[in-house]
């Protein structure tokens, strides 16, 4: 029997056990409920099914936990045994009580079938599960031992293959060393013959390199002189541009001062002159009211020209950035 068959038998035992437990619970509830209803106050008659359900729930707990402990190979001690027999005895007593009170021996025998079957099934199922757990453990141990034996054989084969491969590599390395030694002797002889030719060639190469180095140094000096001349010209050009910029700024400053030196006027100046005055006032940072007094135009017109100059300044800043 292999592990698959053992587990199939365990499933069959589990399914059969739970079918018997379910049937016994249903039969117990149907049998005990009328008895409890007759022995309970009329206003509490609805509680009659509670007791058989509680007892049967204990049976379910016992069967379930016994199956788990058996599968794990454990033992719960004496209290699970006490609970198992106590619940079995309670189920048996509750099922036959009605017939026993009526002195109906046939009824006692009939109603004892399901509880007795449940008790014996619980005990037998526990024994079966323990036996199945032991069988599974034994099969696992055998499979583990077989697997370890296969792995050991595979390791031995691999070691033999590695040893044979190592010997082949060592032999090939020995042949390669001998071949390299022979080639090294030939190379040394060839080197000795070529030394004189290489020395002569080296001297010639050194002479060429010296001439090339002197030429490179001469060209480098010429490039440095050209670079200095170019930098001098660029510096002079920058200085000339800066002087022109300063002179232009000075002219513009004098022109603004001349435009702003006239003082307030009572009449509108010509638009062209008014625009120059507003531009000068904007450049000097004068207020809109002061610029309007200088050109004779309205504050709104001067404010619009200021806004034009600000917009132009923003556009110029954007172009530069």
Characteristic terms for this protein:
321 residues, mainly alpha, 7 helices, flat
What's a concise summary of this model?
The protein is mostly helical.
Contiguous runs where pLDDT drops below 50 for at least 5 residues: none
Biggest sheet, open or closed, and with what strands and sense?
A: none
Number of helices: 7
Mean pLDDT across the residues is 78
Percentage of residues in helical conformation? over 70%
Ends distance = 89 Å
What is the chain-wise order of helices and strands?
A: HHHHHHH
Coarse morphology: flat
Structural class: mainly alpha
Residue fraction in strands:
under 5%
Task: Let me know the number of strands.
Answer: 0
Radius of gyration: 58 Å
Description:
It is built from seven helices and no strands. By secondary structure, the protein is mostly helical. Helix 3 (78-101) packs across helix 4 (105-260). It is flat, with a radius of gyration of 58 Å.
Give the helix/strand layout.
Elements: H1 3-38, H2 50-72, H3 78-101, H4 105-260, H5 271-284, H6 288-295, H7 299-320
